[in-house]
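Spend some time on the protein that follows and explain the fold to me:
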Amino acid sequence: MADKPTIVLVHGFWGGAAHWANVVVELHRRGHDRIRAVENPLTSLGDDAERTRKMIGQADGPVVLVGHSYGGAVITEAGDLPNVKALVYVAAFAPDAGESPGRLSEEMPPAAFENIAPDSDGYLWIRPEKFRESFAQDLGADEALVMAVTQKAPLGSTFGDAVTAPAWRAKPSWYQVSTEDRMIHPDNERRMAARMNPRKTIELDASHASLASRPREVCDLIDLAVRETS
């Protein structure tokens, strides 16, 4: 058995595994050598949870699951496997049973909701010219431009996919709120965090892209989850 947990990073809408780049580098610098990043298809919650479960199943020993944005819904759905020891939410959805990211967003619309636009094939995009101000206003112009151009659009129907059995009801959790988030309302993040009764909640003066703009603080939270569940 492995003596260290595997940290499995799960991205959200409008990005891929590379959104975790700064967190990966920081975790590696701190001595974590078991890091994996899921590349989800963003075609349905079921598809994404299954892809995540497969990566969890490849881990030798315990797993700490970390989800950003919609990735929080994915780890909520996929985190019921027995080797998952902790759930870390990074400016993320944490739906309860029967809830979907779309329903949660409609209850408390975020500031940039209107900057999401569908294409003719049913995929939803953040308008490229609005990407930085919507998703990553605390990143440099070049980094935000790359995110905007390389964004990975989800199928619109994925917004309506509901969680069945939320893993956070049985597994210890940690939560990071982004106080300047324009993609998930900060008060929605606080509400979702509070009902989970997490072991720790932190608030960062950050955009939705806190995983890129504040990797050290995000890694501090991941480290805490690792220590407290090892």
Observations:
- Residues 6-229 form a domain with the Rossmann fold fold (CATH 3.40.50.1820).
